[in-house]
Automatic annotation (TrEMBL):
<dbReference type="InterPro" id="IPR020084">
    <property type="entry name" value="NUDIX_hydrolase_CS"/>
</dbReference>
<comment type="similarity">
    <text>Belongs to the Nudix hydrolase family.</text>
</comment>
<dbReference type="Pfam" id="PF00293">
    <property type="entry name" value="NUDIX"/>
</dbReference>
<feature type="domain" description="Nudix hydrolase">
    <location>
        <begin position="83"/>
        <end position="218"/>
    </location>
</feature>
<dbReference type="InterPro" id="IPR003563">
    <property type="entry name" value="8ODP"/>
</dbReference>
<keyword id="KW-0539">Nucleus</keyword>
<comment type="function">
    <text>Oxidized purine nucleoside triphosphate hydrolase which is a prominent sanitizer of the oxidized nucleotide pool. Catalyzes the hydrolysis of 2-oxo-dATP (2-hydroxy-dATP) into 2-oxo-dAMP. Also has a significant hydrolase activity toward 2-oxo-ATP, 8-oxo-dGTP and 8-oxo-dATP. Through the hydrolysis of oxidized purine nucleoside triphosphates, prevents their incorporation into DNA and the subsequent transversions A:T to C:G and G:C to T:A. Also catalyzes the hydrolysis of methylated purine nucleoside triphosphate preventing their integration into DNA.</text>
</comment>
<comment type="subunit">
    <text>Monomer.</text>
</comment>
<dbReference type="InterPro" id="IPR015797">
    <property type="entry name" value="NUDIX_hydrolase-like_dom_sf"/>
</dbReference>
<dbReference type="InterPro" id="IPR000086">
    <property type="entry name" value="NUDIX_hydrolase_dom"/>
</dbReference>
<protein>
    <recommendedName>
        <fullName>Oxidized purine nucleoside triphosphate hydrolase</fullName>
        <ecNumber>3.6.1.56</ecNumber>
    </recommendedName>
</protein>
<keyword id="KW-0378">Hydrolase</keyword>
<keyword id="KW-0479">Metal-binding</keyword>
<keyword id="KW-0460">Magnesium</keyword>
Length: 241
């Protein structure tokens, strides 16, 4: 097993030390669990341990929590009062002819005017792949089968160094039915992987989109300040053989 780590400090070296030790801890958990599995050719059963501060979306109280997330299954919420509610999201990139990637221009809500893959928040009782399929259909009209989705990895976004803000499950898929259409939420456009509009995408995207283009499994952790500026990140490719 070869592990490639790309770590970049944007502003603060203190934060780098903080995040790299936290990440090493997480990686150990991942490998430990991976090694226990008989099939090392996939990370299908990789378990991501999230052990950090969470903040209740309603009362804003902070507390520690430990979640074990099987990355293909995700963390399945059972009720609205669960603190993970609204934290888990999905993002799916549709590919055409090997080289082209479908992006949608966000027409409303959060990050309006930016190009991104399709996706959104998981609903109660929903699994990530089901969520990716549903959101893609709602936002573009394209139909995919869960079995055709390729799980690429997980993105974790932290605010103020410690509060887990969002956890995004990433998928790619080259098998789909229909033609992308403009919806209330997204306007579709195919881009060559050589000409992606980085300046009009989420800031963090430039640091991991290459993994989507090359379909390499990875995990990414991103730290933003209270003003939503990216201050540090770590992207780790996972090569299993
Ligand atoms: N930092 C980030 N970089 C990125 O590239 N995509 C991100 C991201 N943070 C979240 N996303 C993606 C994940 C998901 O596909 C989408 C979330 O969009 P929304 O908040 O609009 O979700 P929903 O479509 O569920 O919203 P509603 O329909 O308004 O409830 O943005």
């Amino acid at each position: 097993m070869i592990n490639c780590i790309i770590t970049k400090t944007v502003k603060s070296s203190f934060l780098f030390l903080f995040s790299s030790s936290a990440l090493k801890k997480t990686r150990r958990s991942i490998y430990k669990n991976s090694f226990l599995k008989s099939d090392l050719s996939s990370i299908e059963n990789m378990v991501e341990v999230v052990n950090h501060h969470l903040q209740c979306k309603r009362c804003k109280n902070e507390y520690n929590a430990v979640y074990s997330i099987d990355v293909t299954v995700g963390y399945q919420r059972n009720n609205e009062s669960d603190p993970m509610t609204m934290l888990e999201q999905t993002l799916i990139f549709i590919k055409r002819d090997g080289d082209e990637i479908l992006l949608g221009l966000k027409l409303r809500g959060f990050e309006i005017g930016k190009w991104n893959g399709y996706g959104g928040k998981m609903e109660i009782g929903e699994l990530p792949a089901e969520c990716a399929k549903r959101e893609l259909f709602e936002e573009s009209g394209l139909v995919v089968e869960v079995a055709d989705l390729k799980y690429l990895g997980i993105l974790k976004f932290y605010r103020s160094e410690k509060i887990l803000d969002r956890l995004v499950h990433l998928y790619v898929c080259s098998v789909y039915k229909g033609y992308p259409r403009t919806t209330e939420e997204m306007k579709p456009k195919w881009f060559s992987s050589e000409a992606l509009p980085f300046k009009e995408m989420w800031e963090d995207c430039a640091h991991w989109i290459e993994f989507v283009v090359k379909e390499i499994k990875f995990t990414g952790t991103f730290y933003s300040d209270n003003m939503n500026n990216l201050v540090n990140y770590c992207v780790e490719a996972i090569y299993l053989n």
